[in-house]
Design a protein that fits this description.
alpha+beta, Neuraminidase, 2 domains, five-stranded mixed beta sheet, five-stranded antiparallel beta sheet, about 15% helix, about 40% strand, kelch repeat, F-box domain-containing protein, F-box-like_dom_sf, Kelch-typ_b-propeller
Length: about 500
């Protein structure tokens, strides 16, 4: 192994620049000692060819994937370096995080190597369903509940059930080992928080933060609860609820069917929902759990998504969130995508319009009541929902925010890590094999669950699997009308994303 200090002290810096928009790169060097800039092909003494393999690897592992592939096409020596398994291991860690990569199935690594596995995951064209068995006790059928994973435990709270009744129970189960083993549920408590459905519940570190919702009297709520996990010792043998009502000096107007998610730095953001007068809301609020006193603050931006309910809001890393779909003020169902950026001094909403999609690529139809789950690689998995006629869906889509960021803003900070799109004029089949899309529909194998909406979903196993529980499904068909009734489900399914 060559001395890393020698790499840092090397008097040559290497740069690349695109040539005529074709994804091949010409490498340049700068000699600090002589202050000279030259083309490698003309200056053999200061060319990249003088560097050792370890030094080259230390450089190219930081390049975009397209540049790495183009570099490997220049000669046999560089091709061998660009095919190195250690290089692609570092690229996988860069793209998806060390935790996800270290938990990767060893069988997949041995069969395809890290480069082959990277290609599989970028392409990600299919996923397999499996129904998961549940223990002797389990949550009753429900929809519009919340489902989260915190500290290795799955938590389900509340929701609505048959007859329009609300639920007030909290269920907890450890993430099963192995991942498809039966899930052993435990009823932790009931009664606190009060019964509700269409609330938001957000994981913040090891805590859960719940806001709002609607009870079975139609009352919109605006209370905020925190669940720090575990059981709290109470009087006698009966434990108290792990939920605790937070004292906040200011709260958003009461609502349900809004969306909420983590916003970085122990902050939670919510958007939209249905107000007490049944109108759709279009406001954005943030709660900073590290602040004293606790106070919800409204975020005012020059532009924002139109008012809606039944949409999703998903944290995608840093201080950025993605909003998708929902039902608008005139009951229209939408499929627009917005990015909320809190990275800059002034927060902003940016719409990622359909014209920004790559030509010829499909995208999901309008829907509400779907789930949007952050999976490995910082991508968002969309499942189910219902259209404007309340016809339920069972399709699976993946949104790649790195492509969305590139397409949706002119800001240089909106460059997704490792993301790129293939130039149609390149004719570069190697680059095409690694191309990423803003939207991709996944083929489903195994035993897919029935079509549903307003179900719960959460990612487990470093985002390589997604659990689905409950939701609204088609009930028995009315013989007189031929229309399907409404049913509430209590099945648990798992979607395997990694082969």
């Amino acid at each position: 192994m060559e001395d890393p200090d020698h790499v840092r002290d090397c008097t040559r810096r290497h740069f690349y620049e695109p040539m005529n928009k074709v994804p091949r790169y010409r490498y340049w060097t700068v000699s600090e000692k002589h202050g000279k800039v030259g083309d490698d092909e003309e200056d053999g003494e200061s060319g990249i060819g003088l560097l050792g393999a370890d030094q080259i690897l230390a450089i190219i592992q930081h390049l975009p994937i397209q540049a790495v592939i183009s570099f490997g096409m220049t000669c046999k020596r560089y091709k061998a370096i660009a095919e190195t398994d250690a290089l692609w291991l570092n690229i996988c860690k860069r793209e998806w995080g060390s935790r996800a990569v270290e938990a990767w199935p060893s069988a997949g690594r041995q069969k395809a190597g890290w480069k082959g596995l990277y290609r599989q995951m970028v392409v990600l064209g299919a996923a397999a369903w499996q129904r998961v068995q549940q223990g002797p006790v389990s949550p009753t059928p429900r929809a519009s509940h919340t489902m989260n994973v915190v500290n290795g435990r799955i938590t389900i709270f509340g929701g609505g059930c048959d007859g329009g009744r609300h639920l007030d129970d909290t269920w907890v189960a450890p993430v099963p080992e192995p991942i498809c083993a039966p899930v052993q549920w435990q009823l932790v408590c009931s009664g606190l928080p009060s019964g509700r459905f269409q609330q938001s519940c957000t994981a913040v570190g090891d805590d859960l933060l719940l806001f709002g919702g609607i009870n079975d009297k139609g009352t919109r709520l605006s209370d905020t609860y925190i669940n720090s996990g575990g059981m709290v010792a109470g009087d006698g043998e009966r434990p108290r609820s792990p939920w605790r009502l937070l004292d906040v000096s200011t709260a958003p107007p009461p609502r349900g069917a809004h969306a909420g998610c983590y916003a970085g730095d122990r902050k939670v953001v919510i958007f939209g929902g249905i107000a007490s007068d049944a109108t759709r809301l279009g406001d954005t609020w943030i709660l900073d759990l590290a602040a004293t006193p606790l106070c919800w603050q409204e975020v005012v931006t020059p532009t924002s998504p139109q008012p809606r309910a039944g949409h999703t809001l998903t944290w995608v890393g840093g201080k950025r969130m993605v909003l998708f779909g929902g039902r608008g003020a005139n009951f229209e169902v939408m499929n627009d995508v917005w990015m909320l950026d809190l990275e800059e001094e002034y927060p902003s909403w940016v719409e990622l319009q359909s014209s920004m999609l790559q030509p010829g690529h499909d995208h999901p139809g309008p829907r509400s009541g779907h789930s949007a789950t952050l999976i490995f690689g910082g991508r968002v998995l969309i499942f189910g929902g219902e259209d404007s006629r309340r016809v339920r869906k069972g399709d699976v889509w993946v949104l790649d925010p790195s492509m969305a960021l590139q397409a949706g803003s002119d800001k240089s900070s909106y460059q997704g890590q490792g993301g790129f799109s293939r130039s149609r004029s390149s004719g570069n089949s190697s680059s095409y094999r690694y191309s990423r899309r803003l939207w991709k529909r996944l083929k489903q194998s195994g035993r897919p669950p029935s079509k549903r909406s307003f179900h719960g979903a959460c990612a487990v196993d470093s985002g390589k699997h997604v659990l689905i529980f409950g939701g609204m499904v088609d009930g028995e068909v009315n013989p007189a009308t031929g229309a399907a009734g409404l049913g509430f489900d209590s099945e648990l399914h798992i979607l395997q994303l990694v082969p």
